[in-house]
Each structure stands twice: as structure tokens, then as C-alpha cells.
Specification:
This protein has 10 helices and 9 strands. With about 350 residues, the chain is an alpha+beta fold. Strand 8 and strand 9 form a beta hairpin.
Amino acid sequence: MKFSERFDALLRDHINITDGQIGDLDTHVDALTSYLANHMDSLTRWEKQGSYALRTIIQPVRPRNEFDADILLIVEKDGNKPAPYIEDLYDTLKESNRYKDKLELGNRAVTVQYSGQCHVDLVPCVEDNGKYYVCPRSEDDLEETDGTALQEWFNERNRLTNGNLKHVVRILKHLRDHKSNFQAPSVILTVLAGETIRDIDEDSECVSAVADTLTTVLERISDRLKESDNIPVIKNPGNPELVLKTPWEPNQYDYFRKQINAHAKTARRALDETNRTNSLKIWKRLLDDFDDSEDDSDSQPAKSKVKSSSDSGRTRTTTLATAGISTQTFPPPRPYAPYME
């Protein structure tokens, strides 16, 4: 059985970040990018990326954990060595009394930590002949990326499911973090889930509700992984020339596909079970936070839900009016850096 209202409650009460959290995050991002626009001459524009752009951020499992947002900073190209770009970003932020004690210098990003709330990963990126490159400090060369293609591809897959795919990706990430019985970077989960959705699925029963879509996605991922004993090559679906990094060791990959197979079987049993009580118990077995109480709330009209700007599906453009940068409205997001969340 589908229990759509209970899936809505699961997402609302246990998985989705709140409007307040996304509001605070947007405030942090606006302040950060405003500071950089005024103090980093090479910056030309900034864009959301990763789960922040795809609207698949989830609530941390434990209260002291934090969610993160990923921001791509498009900077003017000045050489082919990656390290100076991220070091310049770090040095610029280090000059700020507001940020100097919140910084962590990573390989592809400078992280700004907002203790107990969230952290923002700032990823320098350069454009060269219509292509985009992130700047890993540990590498000798720039690394090509293409986020627009990935984002547009995912948004189309999500549209075919009437928005259910976005919720399913959040549930998969929650399963990963809550049960801790498999490992997979968010970008890999997102691509694997999106690749299961076919054009012919639009308006079909297999994606008609969150429960249907979750079951479909799990079964099709499981079927794909069964065909490969070796770690599969996973490409950026919007730009197949680019291969995403899979950090699994062979034993980790084998365990991942076994867990996905087990979850797929549980979801199918829960969905196909016609006895209400039994179906609730099976969903609860898969999703610990699922409400399996014996009330009739799932037969009542769904509670009204305020639609946050992060779920609107509209492309957000960003305007910078700063010293050293002409006032302009920037286009929809371009690249998606292939780092792991």
C-alpha cells in the first residue's frame, strides 16, 4: 500500500530541512558571496551546485551533525595549476574577521563552518573555451566538470515523476545516513536514481506516488548492479564524456548492492501488501521513522504544506552589484563539480 500522507509526514518531519534552515542558509550564502564579490577581483559569478541546486538537501540524522551547501565560484582563468585558485580564495576569506576562524582548507573547496547549523563549501572553478574546470589542490591539472548538463538532466527525470524523484533521492540519502548500512556519495545516489527513470514512465503507475517511485528506483538500481560484479563506471548523464568518481573498495561496492537489493525487496513487499496493518509494519521495517500507528490519518486529506522557495522548481538568477564587478544578472547554473558530498 502507498500511504502517501504518511510518506509526506516522513519527509516533512524527519527528512526535509525546514524553511527556517533554508532561510538561514540562504542568508549565509548571500553574505559570503557579497564579501567575496567585494574582495576577490577574479570572481565573475557564483552558482548553487550539488544538493543545494537540486533541492535534495536532507536533515542531519543526529542533532549535532550539520547539513551543507555547495557554491561554485566562477573565477577568471590565470594559469593551469589548480592550487593557486583555492589558495587565493582561502587567503581572501582569511582576511575577514567574520570568517577567519570558521575556515577549513580542503582539496577542492574552502569550507566555512557555522557551528551547530551548517557549513558552506566554496568551490573555485575556471572557464576555458566553453568548458568548466574545478581546481583540486592535490592534482597537477584542472579537472573538467559540467553541472548544467547534470542539473538539467536530473530536473527532467524529476519532472517525469511529477516531483517524486526528488523526494526519493532524499529518502535514499536518509536511508544511507540513518541505517549506516551502505556507503555512497550523494551525487552517485542521485545519478543512479535518476537513471532508472525512463521517458515512458511519465504518468505511469510506477512513478505515481512516492511509494511507487521509491520501489521502482530501488528495484531498477538493484537490477543494474546485479549485472556488474565489478564497480560500474558511472558517468555524468548530461555529459557522458565525464566520469564521476566512485570511492568504493570492492567489498564496499558488493555490500552496497546487497543492501540495495534487500531494500528493494522490502519496498516491493510493503507496496504490494494489501493488508493495511502488515503493509505499515513492512514500511516501518525499511524506514525506521515511518509512522506505523493504527490510526486513520492516512485516509484523511493531506495536511496543507507551505511551499518553500527551495521546492518551487524555478531557476534562481543571482545579481552582484559590487566594487570591481559590473552589476549584472547571471544565467542559470552552469557546472556541477564532481566532488563527493
